[in-house]
Amino acid sequence: MVEWYDWFVYASFATYFASAFFPKGNETAQLLNTAGIFAVGFFMRPVGGWLLGRFADRRGRKAALTLTVTLMSGSALLIAVAPTYGSVGYLGAFVLLVARLLQGLSVGGEYAASATYLTEATPPGRRGFASSFQYVSMTAGQLVGLGLLIVLQHAMTEEALKSYGWRIPFAVGAVAAAVILYLRRSLLETEAFDEQERAPEEAGAGRGTLRELAAHRREAALVVALTMGGTLAYYTYTTYLTKYLSNTAGLEKSTASLVSFCALFAFMWLQPLAGALSDRIGRRPLLIGFGIGGTLGTVPLMTALSRVDGFGGALALSLVGLVIVTGYTSINAVVKAEMFPTHVRALGVALPYAVANALFGGTAEYVALWFKKAGAESGFYWYVAGCAAVSLVVYVCMRETRDAALSRRESAPGDVPAHA
What would you report as the CA-atom Rg of the chain, rounded to the nearest whole angstrom? Predict the structure, then answer.
């Protein structure tokens, strides 16, 4: 939760610190600049996925999880103390960029390490349910950030928030991440990784290497393709939603923040329900449901959201979008982990997922604002729908992964997953 709070709080508070790092002018242009730095952080995620995915496959899931939160704590502190444009010019934006790159490095490894840990640490037949808690914790991190934003919006004036109030959430994140670093040191390693450590000759020096991942290039390509539509839709209906409701629909910033908070709260509780459902009926039906909903529903939903004039309508439409996205978010981590063997599982999840996130998820806000600035905002809706359509083709053609064995014990005769 803390790791993802630090990652998402950037987007939540961007409307307040955008003017602190760039020259005064058009608000959309300032948001475009901060969204560009937000997107650059995503392009560091493949590097983090490669380095920290390899680290997790060679040193263990626990060690990787400890390292990622250390990086996140340092980057949050860097943003909290970054100088503004008014005092040092563009040097402040450069500090913001460096911090965002470190966050991208951290999250690039965090996603894979946590997805792999949750999947390997759970008995067959309950992996979908257990792995769904990755998005529960991710969403909880967003909610904490949005909750703090709402509190500060009511406790401080907009001028105070733009002056210094935006630094508060990053300082809180830095301290909280340091606490989590201490807690993660007590984690137990997974059985699948321990099995590998006891029989290192099975993978040898190939553990977590790009050469070994190349032997599973079909699975890696599948991860990119199945992530493409899901990650773009997820960031559209979560991190970009607050800006969209205030900048396009014209809602007050405080109202837009409250809509996002309530929608995400409901979305969080949908994850384990959908994850448990996938343990019964399989992963593909949920993915296909998302693909159909994302392809056919994005354009009318986003068009309707652009015309809302109050809290109730905005919340209802946002929930519809997030229900559709749940078909992807609740199980995407377990599906990817179930595709790869232990010695390359973390890297196999991390690198292709991070590439897809950099290309589609991380650029979602930037592309949306680019279309808006160009006077063709509806083009973004069709872009999201088109990416969902590509992923839908993959979901229809891919194999079911629910019954994959992740360790020798699970492969033993008679050890059959229980889905009832």
Answer: 21
Two tokens, residue 420: 């009832």
Of 269, 261, 230, 278, nearest to 402 by C-alpha is: 278
* Cβ contacts of 386-389, under 8 Å, gap ≥ 24: 387/228, 387/229, 387/232, 387/233, 387/360, 388/229, 388/230, 388/232, 388/233, 388/290, 388/291, 388/293, 388/294, 388/295, 388/298, 389/229, 389/291, 389/294, 389/295
Q: How far apart are CA 112 and CA 314, in angstroms?
A: 33
Residue 413 lies in a domain: no
Number of domains the chain contains: 1
Q: Which two tokens stand for residue 73?
A: 């704590």
Residue 197, domain member (yes or no): no
Structure tokens at 42: 């995503």
Q: Spell out, as residue ranges, where the chain has pLDDT lower than 70.
A: 23, 25-31, 38, 197-206, 407-420
* Model pTM score: 0.81
Domain-located, residue 202:
no
Query: Counting Cβ atoms within 10 Å, is residue 185 exposed (0-12), middle (13-18) or buried (19+)?
Result: exposed
pLDDT attached to residue 229: 95
Q: How many other C-beta atoms lie within 10 A of the C-beta of residue 196?
A: 22
Tokens for 54, please give them.
């390899």
Tokens 């020096």 belong to 205
CATH of residue 102's domain is: 1.20.1250.20
pLDDT digits (tens, 9 = 90+) for 355-390: 898 889 878 888 998 898 888 999 999 999 999 999
Residue 288 one-letter amino acid: I
- DSSP summary character for residue 205: G
Cα–Cα distance measured from residue 220 to residue 281, given in angstroms and rounded to the nearest whole number: 24
Gap between the Cα atoms of 360 and 377, Å rounded: 17
Round to whole Å and give the CA distance between 34 and 184: 32
Range of the domain at 264: 2-185+217-403
**Cα–Cα distance, 164 to 166 (Å, whole number):** 6
State the DSSP H helix or E strand holding residue 130, giving kind and residue range, or none if neither: helix 127-131
Choose among 159, 184, 18: nearest CA to 96.
18
**Structural domain contains residue 409:** no
Say which residue the tokens 């969902």 belong to: 388
C-beta of residue 395 within 8 angstroms of C-beta of residue 284: yes
